[in-house]
Amino acid sequence: MDKKFRRNVSVRGSDDFTNIKLAAPLRHAAGLLGIKAAIQHGLKEMGVVRSMRALMNMNQNDGFECPSCAWPDPDKPSRFREFCENGTKALADEATTQHIGSDFFKNNSVEQLSELTDYELNKFGRIVEPLVLRPGKIHYESISWQDAYALIAKELRKLNSPDEAIFYTSGRSSNEAAFLYGMFARAFGTNNMPDCSNMCHESSGVALKETLGIGKGSIKLEDLHNAEVIIVAGQNPGTNHPRMLSALEKCKENGGKIISINPLEESGLVNFRNPQSVKGMLGGGEDLTNIQLPVNINQDIPLIKLIIKKLIDLDSESGTVFDHDFINKYVDGHEALMNGIQEYDSNELLQLTGVDEDKIDEAVQLLASKSKIVVCWAMGLTQHKNGVETIREYINLLLLKGAIGKPNAGTCPVRGHSNVQGDRSVGIMHHVDAGLNDRIKEHLGFTAPDKEGFDTVGAMRAMYEGEGKVFVCLGGNFLMAASDTEYTAVAIQRCNLTVQISTKLNRSHLVTGKAALILPTFGRSEKDMKNGQLRYITVENSMGRVRQSRGLLKPASNRIKSEPELIAELADTYFEGNHSVNWKAMGEDYDLIRQQIDNVIKGFENTSDNSKGSGYYLPNNVRDLDFSKLPNGKAQLTLNSLPDHELQENEFVLMTIRSHDQFNTTIYGLDDRYRGVYNERRVLFMNKQDMKEQELIKMDVVDITSFYDNTKRTAFKFLVIPYNIPKGNLAAYFPETNVLVPYNHFADRSKTPISKSIVVRLVKTKIG
Ligand code: SF4
User: What does the DSSP 8-state code read for residue 531?
Assistant: First the structure.
């Protein structure tokens, strides 16, 4: 790194302990405690009137979509009811009345700020004017929008090749912003478009595309309500997609059963106290999970193979366990799967799972007699070396049961950020799609590049090697979201210019390229007015439905801009008004963007008038039982190997998890109420027997180390907490433990980091 520009910024921030308090993990989710937490966050950040106005409009047909997760709203939302504790926290976080601008940065250098925790940084509030950090300086200063665009344009023009620029997208953006941004990157000449999907559900996309022909889930919300069995695998909906609990509750009320497959027994899946029902508030709530299978980390493949083996035995007796008509008509690879699975020894599989066989047999009996089965999953399946294979194994189970492409059955990868799926749909991707490029040529009049670009891992490596020089981020906190934090920090610092389009302060504003810009933008809840007209954007939820979103709150400042508008103005500045696309006009009138989305993106044709109210579903071949694009025109059963975790003595497998007071990299608070941890994030959840064997007691302080490719990585200072987690497994919070995840170890084919199965050791540093 060029020493002249190196700033003395901390990548770790403060790791002082914050006076931890422990309690027993809760045996239920939501209820009065959830309401209390939501009200506290809302009132503290927004005040009474602003909170009430915003909440009454969140997830309503004529309101704005929750800026947090991508869980779908019902077609007919009920007034007052379509939000959860975490949605309220996300709203309060963006609609806070705390603001910071150039005065704040005059008094606080990036070096000083970087010593704070991510939680403290987030608390400073909304950024209200464009800011620049000039080379060699440690204080951001104010800059005009036009000068900011000019600076970016100048740096882009200086590059030897368009491929030295990287355009990252987080899942917060709208379809309109993402479409413009993706088209600008292509018009500039690169497909370097990593996005947050690369780090979370890319494995789902790859697995689903290979087996079913579309990289998205197949079910709609109502399918969950009427499913006979829902398998929730590698997912913690109580914290990460809280309103999914209402759907699970409805399924239970309708007689459905729930199987939870996860190393940890999460409170949200034990019992749900629905704050919108008398039973939830005054009664004991609804017990959700019928069968909990506490599988060892990343041993889902052996578990599902064992379940399939047992189902094969039952089917050979009755012939009714599998849907043979469905298999004959729609499925390829049946014989190979049947032969392949016989090679596995049941006892060996059982040992790998770490689960009691009685429990597995209970699940087998349930699955044998049902066919309306949904599998829901999240990063507990995707973020492993074999993430793609793991998901394919679950799809094997669904295909054998004929639980695909029919009502109340199918696949449900539960997406994290609110428009992560939509961003991808409208063209944010590093792959080349020849058909898309043809339509760009036809409708937008320029030739898009035909060379594959960088995904997230590729972008990190390129910046580290000096091949990526300008790094633009549409939202997010790339430094903390990406794996291998120290490596990523070096990579980012080697750029000439880093640009963050952001609402609030985070560590990616402090660990920057030689020069850095912050371009402040609207939150989802804010009123986006132009020429006296209220503009709206659209987003796509986890189940492929596109809906309008209109904000209503006064924007944090009159010096911030909407994402589509600022992207359009940047493009216009770069092309100096001389391009086949009229960027400026599109930035002003989003209907023009939507018309081009209809033209250019397959599946959106003629839908620009149809996105009002409850919205519309994008095409989904699985729902139509159309597998014509797959080999032999059929859905694919697959052969998947067992995971390979040969642990040496004193090694453990660690998974990163989220606390209840965070959403992705945004830390709202320091509590993890469901797991009984208060006022601290530097904790390590550990099996009691493992603690004994390691001679550790509660509150001992350990460093966690990983060792890959001769490189030792360390996450310093974690308090050990005894927890109900399978032996040999550990859990600690993301993003603090990202530092342990080697950037070059990721899922085969999807390149999703192995954040849920990191091999680590512990080094005791202090007696607690
Ligand atoms: S479930 Fe997700 S989208 Fe719905 S209100 Fe909660 S955080 Fe927002």
Answer: T
